[in-house]
Write a structure and sequence with these properties.
Blueprint (H helix, E strand, L loop, with lengths): L2 H17 L9 H16 L3 H6 L1 E8 L7 E2 H10 L3 E9 L4 E10 L2 E11 L5 E7 L5 E2 L2
Parallel strand pairs: 1-6
Antiparallel strand pairs: 1-2, 3-4, 4-5, 5-6, 5-7
């Protein structure tokens, strides 16, 4: 190998390294599960300020899935005032900055079974929530 070939190889490797975006680490599975348990505890306490602080500034909510997106602050304000309680049946998380919870939700109008899927940013803030439920998931209405 000549010196020129070696130098060109090194230059190429450096350029490739500089061109490759550095991907920030996703929050750990344990961190996301803990965040969801804290989220539902704060929701059950109807603590809008604490819940809102768990969301990224640009977080959006789709509840139920297929309806127009709403800013997290608007969603949290409505839910914390509605006297809804969340019974967490299961929390699971992936290694790809997302987690989900299976819920039994008590509302003034009746009960509801739902799955809520959350995404997180690298700081561990919630960036989105999508709730999956339909008319057949409601009880007592």
């Amino acid at each position: 190998m000549t010196r020129v070939t070696l130098i060109l190889g090194i230059i190429g490797a450096v350029m490739l390294a500089l061109a490759t975006p550095v991907r920030a680490a996703a929050p750990t599975e344990a961190r996301m599960k803990g965040a969801l348990l804290a989220y539902f505890e704060a929701m059950n306490d109807h603590d809008a300020a604490k819940v809102t602080a768990m969301f990224a500034a640009d977080a959006m909510i789709e509840d139920p899935f297929g309806t127009p997106l709403r800013p997290a602050a608007v969603f949290v304000d409505g839910v914390t005032k509605a006297m809804i309680s969340f019974n967490v049946l299961l929390v699971t998380a992936s290694e790809h900055a997302s987690a989900a919870a299976a819920l039994y939700i008590n509302t003034p109008k009746g009960n509801l079974n739902a799955i809520e899927v959350f995404t997180f940013n690298t700081e561990g803030k919630i960036t989105s929530m999508k709730a999956y439920w339909g008319p057949g998931d409601r009880e007592g209405q």
